[in-house]
Amino acid sequence: MKGFQFKWTVKNLAATILVLLLLGSAIAAYYFYSQLNALKENPQGAAQKEVHDLVAKVGQLIVLPVGEDPTVAVVTDLERLKDQPFFANAQKGYKVLIYTNARKAILYDPVNNRIVEVAPVNIGGQENPVESPGFEPENTKK
After folding, report:
1. pTM, whole model, 2 decimals?
2. Residue ranges of E strands in the chain
3. Residue 18: CB partners within 8 Å, gap ≥ 6?
4. Gap between the Cα atoms of 107 and 70, Å rounded
5. Are residues 37 and 78 in the same domain?
6. Rounded to an integer, what distance in angstroms lies between the CA atom of residue 142 and that of residue 128?
7. Half-sphere exposure of residue 109, counting CA atoms within 13 Å on the CB side?
8. What is the pLDDT of residues 106-139, one digit of tens each?
9. Residues 37 and 49 in one domain
10. How far is CA 110 from the centre of its chain?
11. Residues 6+ apart with CB under 8 A from 112
12. Cα gap 140→138, rounded to integer Å
C-alpha cells in the first residue's frame, strides 16, 4: 500500500493561495483596527513614543538633562535660519531638541545619527524658539 500523495493541481494551488491571502488580510485588518483604537484612546501616545525614541537615540550620543522632557522641532526652511550660527550646518529634516529648564538646544541629524550642534538657549526677552520661522514643532511630550 502506497502512502498518501498530494497532487498539486491548479485548482488546489489557487484555493491555497486564496486562503493564505484571506488569512493575511484578516491579520492585517485586526492589526490596523487595534492601532486605530489605541490611537483613539490616547491620541498623544504616538507623539510621546516618538519623542521618547528620539531622546533615547540622542541620549546614546550625548548626556541629556535629567528630569525634563524636550520640545522637539524639525528644520523645514533653511533660508530663514541661514543667519543663525546654530543652524549653520543644518539641513531639512534635522531635529532640534530644546531643553527649556536646562537652557540647552541640540541639533540632531536623524539620518546619520549624530549630534550636529549644541548651544545654550537664551529665553529672556526672545521669542519662543519653537515658534521661530524656519522650523516647526514636531511632537512635544507632556
Report:
1. 0.62
2. 71-75, 95-99, 104-109, 114-120, 135-140
3. none
4. 12
5. no
6. 17
7. 11
8. 999 999 999 999 999 887 654 444 445 555 556 5
9. no
10. 9
11. none
12. 7
